[in-house]
Amino acid sequence: MSKIDEVRSAMMQAMKDKNKPRKDALSMLLSALKAKFIDKRADLTVEEENTIILREIKQAQETLESLPADKEEMMEECRLRISIYSEFAPKQMDENEIKAIVKAVIESLNIDNPTIREKGIIMKNLMPKVKSKADGSLVNKVVGEFIS
Fold first, then answer.
1. Do residue 72 and residue 99 come from a single domain?
2. Domain count, the chain
3. Residues 6+ away with beta carbon under 8 Å from 51
4. Per-residue pLDDT tens for 67-83?
């Protein structure tokens, strides 16, 4: 079952439950997924679907962070969207899982003592393995720990 079908099903359930805030949030997510589907003119891959969902979560977080403190209603709406979108997001890797993959990539590149100059090579080989499975800033931090 594609994410579009999952989100549509959840939105229908929210409509049956008369849960307007949830239905509205799911409608926005469904629109983002459908827009990409229409642009691509083909079915979306799981990775593309996950990328869209993570992008929507990130946008809601950025909106939440940029809102002034007196906009409590809008802040609550952003928090609700983040929690609903997270239901459909892939499980994110934790720091230990990322460290294991970074270590494996460094070993596969035969780099004994990684330096800042080799960071680009490491990241180039690492990112396809963790894309949409881990937060990019966390990956960057973990790679930085390995560089001497």
1. no
2. 2
3. 131, 132
4. 898 889 999 999 999 99
